[in-house]
């Protein structure tokens, strides 16, 4: 059991019993909720989608992008919600039936250097302290990964971490593909040329692979600064999703979309608490003690 998990369950149940979730949901009638997933199990994800479809209307990120460009949400259904999945994990393919059944068209933000290959995400290299690695300049991080685990970004392994090209293409009618850079570096730790290559190269790679425009970006690990924003805007992305907690209104900057991170195996009570922001609130106050 994660620390504070019982407290989260309790808070979630309170949201349901007191009607706090139902009341708060009314505030989301004209705001867009963007949920952030990574690698959920089909069972938990299917349960979430069934719940969400009763309380929200699934829209695509393209719908949201267009509404934002007009600064007018009147064409969106009430309680609009976008589902996003980060990284392009191989097991996302097992969610395809859930996408079809629920009618959701999620965004899968793919690392173009990893999807369609048998390369690994760097954090799956077997390295111990992933959080420490994120604090290092990108070249030092890569050198340490190679020394400690033999990991190299372009090394092919026996099993793959990410979706294959065939899987992505089969899923294409049911998903929107966005970019999540090529190799998921911590962008502010990269030098200028690597940063540019990751942001512009990833978009070009995915467009070549899929034969369709790629307009959306999500920052790896949620990390970015003024330089990253400038490069991404010049690369032609029309929306960028952050992991800063919040909702999207007609006045939101399309290149600074706020979102709600979801614990994959969350019970429906915890999901309620996530959606109305109680967990994000607790996380801010308890910091590192509070693990999602
Ligand atoms: Zn990611």
Secondary structure elements and their pairing?
Elements: H1 5-17, H2 20-27, E1 33-37, H3 42-55, E2 57-58, H4 61-70, E3 80-87, H5 96-102, E4 107-110, H6 130-133, H7 138-149, H8 165-171, E5 176-179, H9 192-210, E6 216-218, H10 226-235, E7 239-245, E8 257-261, H11 268-275, H12 278-286
Parallel strand pairs: 1-3, 1-8, 2-3, 3-4, 4-5, 6-7, 7-8
Helix pairs in contact: 1-11, 9-10
Q: Measured on Cα atoms, how large is the radius of gyration?
A: 19 Å
SS-derived structural category: alpha/beta
The CATH class of the largest domain is identified as Alpha Beta
Characterize the overall form. globular
The description of the largest β-sheet is:
8 strands, parallel
Averaging pLDDT over every residue, what do you get?
A: 93
Could you estimate the helical fraction of the residues in percent?
A: 40-55%
CATH H-level superfamily of the largest domain = Glycoside hydrolase/deacetylase
Strand and helix order: HHEHEHEHEHHHEHEHEEHH
Q: What's the CATH architecture name of the largest domain?
A: Alpha-Beta Barrel
Assembly form of the protein: single chain
Bound molecules: zinc ion
């Amino acid at each position: 059991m994660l620390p504070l998990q019982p407290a989260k369950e309790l808070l979630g149940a309170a949201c349901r019993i007191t009607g706090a979730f139902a009341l708060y949901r009314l505030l989301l009638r004209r705001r867009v909720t963007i949920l952030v997933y990574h690698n959920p199990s089909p069972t938990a994800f299917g349960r979430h989608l069934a719940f969400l479809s009763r309380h929200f209307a699934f829209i695509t990120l393209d719908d949201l992008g267009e509404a934002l460009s007009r600064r007018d949400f009147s064409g969106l259904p009430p309680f609009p919600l976008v589902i996003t999945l980060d990284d392009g994990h191989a097991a996302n393919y097992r969610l395809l039936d859930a996408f079809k059944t629920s009618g959701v068209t999620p965004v899968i933000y793919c690392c173009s250097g990893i999807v369609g290959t048998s390369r690994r995400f760097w954090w799956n290299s077997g390295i111990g302290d992933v959080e420490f690695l994120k604090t290092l300049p990108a070249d030092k991080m890569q050198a340490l990964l190679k020394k400690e685990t033999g990991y190299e970004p372009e090394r092919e392994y026996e099993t793959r971490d990410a979706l294959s090209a065939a899987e992505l293409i089969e899923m294409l009618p049911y998903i929107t593909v966005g970019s999540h850079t090529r190799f998921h570096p911590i962008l502010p730790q990269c030098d200028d040329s690597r940063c540019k290559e990751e942001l512009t190269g990833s978009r070009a790679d995915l467009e070549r692979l899929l034969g369709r425009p790629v307009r959306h970006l999500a920052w790896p690990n949620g990390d970015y600064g003024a330089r990253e924003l400038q490069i991404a805007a010049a690369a032609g992305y029309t929306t960028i999703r952050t992991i800063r907690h919040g909702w999207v209104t007609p006045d939101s900057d399309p290149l600074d979309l706020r979102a709600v991170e979801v614990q994959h195996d969350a019970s429906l009570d915890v999901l309620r608490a996530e959606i109305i922001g109680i967990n994000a609130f607790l996380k801010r106050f308890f910091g590192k003690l509070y693990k999602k």
